[in-house]
Design goal:
412 residues; alpha/beta; nine-stranded mixed β-sheet; four-stranded antiparallel β-sheet; 11 helices; globular; binds glyoxylic acid; binds manganese (II) ion
């Protein structure tokens, strides 16, 4: 049975972790940043050194391939991959594992001359973490990018995508040209850390993803009245921050009470204006995110939260603006890919558990154009999107081995 090299994979994980490394561990490597662009150049070098054909598309997606120079319907490819961008103060495995394990699999196939009827390729998708727009690169590749929205896409700090891409040497307006021809991808399988506690708690080494949650993000802007924070009597204040805070607490209750056992909610962005201690806040903006695998429940929760926000604003004499900023639909994984992962696990004598992904992934875009699936390995303590995110070395080796077997069986 062909074997991946854990030592080579681990040394590449350590090498990639140096780009954007933080003094206390972990990494900050947003897409298009200088750190990300250095990581891209390093990755291209590693792909080439492994004997792969490489290219970068107009959306900044990086590819390494065996038996392929460009995507065509005539030569459907079995594709793997993930992303090399990270959240701020993130870990070294989210995304990196899927890209580097994919590279390791193709390296082994090339070195050992393993037969594969279909071409094989590995992708590093741009801006998976959605600093400028969620799952940007895979959306472009799958023809799901709204070209008209590109000029106004920006980070929460207001940095425009067009500008950051230009600094990295890309023309954002050309990103839709990254769309692959229909039929160019025969199947997609992505290895990722679970980022939650389910596999570790169950003592099961491999997760087979059945579906990926849908995510709704909404910006809520509460507007009140700026006033002197010392002299204005309490009863006369129209404090925008209190509307936002009240909403955040009640929305959490609503989602827990009215959602499914899988529904989750988060307010991770709050901005108060003018933002000084001696002025009653005139404006408070928050970004509310919700996730849920059932599309009907997700849509109902979104409606109920919007109604809640209006009640809260009315009750406090505030104006309210509700701006949906992104909405991804829950994506089922293909039974054929799930079966291939399951067969690989039984061949390797590894127990596997079916589960849904509570994180968003590029695989959800690929699922719209091909048979797509995902392999999960346990995350230590269920920790992710934090600097101490980690998985055990044997978990990484098992995941990469399952990925290799699955790719070979899909390419057979
Ligand atoms: C991706 O990391 C997500 O936010 O789900
Ligand atoms: Mn992530
Ligand atoms: Mn990820």
């Amino acid at each position: 049975m062909p074997k991946v090299s854990l030592a080579r994979l681990e040394s590449r994980i350590a090498a990639l972790a140096r780009f954007g490394a933080l003094p206390g561990g972990g990494v900050t490597r947003p897409c298009w940043s200088p750190q990300h662009e250095e990581a891209r150049a390093w990755l291209l070098g590693e792909l080439r050194a492994a004997g792969l054909e490489t290219w970068v598309d107009p959306a900044g997606n990086v590819f390494g391939a065996l038996g392929l120079r460009a995507f065509t319907a005539q030569q459907p490819v079995v594709l793997t991959g993930s992303h090399i961008d990270t959240v701020p103060e993130g870990g070294i495995l989210d995304g990196a594992l899927g890209v580097l394990a994919g590279l390791e699999c193709l390296h082994v196939v090339n070195e050992a001359g393993l037969p594969h009827r279909r071409p094989l390729a590995v992708a590093a998708w741009s801006d998976e973490e959605g600093r400028y727009g969620s799952l940007f690169g895979s959306r472009a590749f799958c023809g799901r990018l709204d070209a008209g929205a590109i000029p106004t896409m920006a980070s929460v700090e207001g940095e425009r995508l067009v500008e950051v891409m230009a600094r990295a040497g890309f023309d954002a307006l050309l990103a839709p040209r990254a769309q692959a021809p229909p039929g160019a991808v025969a199947a997609y399988v992505e290895l990722h850390i679970e980022q939650g506690p389910r596999l570790e708690e169950a003592g099961i080494p491999i997760g087979i993803v059945e579906a990926i949650v849908g995510v709704r993000r909404t910006r809520l802007v509460f507007r009140g009245q700026a006033d002197h924070a010392g002299t204005t009597p309490m009863a006369r204040r129209r404090d925008a921050f209190l509307g936002a805070a009240d909403y955040a607490l009640q929305a959490r209750e609503l989602v827990v009470r009215r959602g499914s056992a899988s529904s989750v909610t988060n307010v991770g962005v709050v901005q108060v204006h003018p933002g000084v201690s001696n002025i009653v806040p005139a404006r408070a903006e928050l970004v509310h995110e919700m996730r849920e695998p059932d599309p009907d429940i997700l849509a109902r929760l979104a409606d109920e939260c919007a109604a809640l926000a209006r009640r809260v604003a009315d009750g406090r004499g505030l104006a309210l603006e509700i701006v949906p900023t992104s909405a991804t639909s829950p994506a089922p994984c293909a039974p054929r890919v799930q079966a291939a992962i399951e067969a690989a696990c039984s061949e390797l004598g590894l127990r596997a558990q079916r589960l849904h992904s509570a994180a968003g992934h590029d695989a959800q875009n690929l699922a719209a154009v091909t048979d797509a699936g995902m392999v999960f390995i346990p995350s230590r303590g269920g920790r992710s999107h934090r600097v101490d995110e980690m998985s055990d070395a044997d978990a990484i080796e098992r995941g990469a081995t399952v990925l290799l077997q699955t790719l070979l069986s899909l390419a057979r």
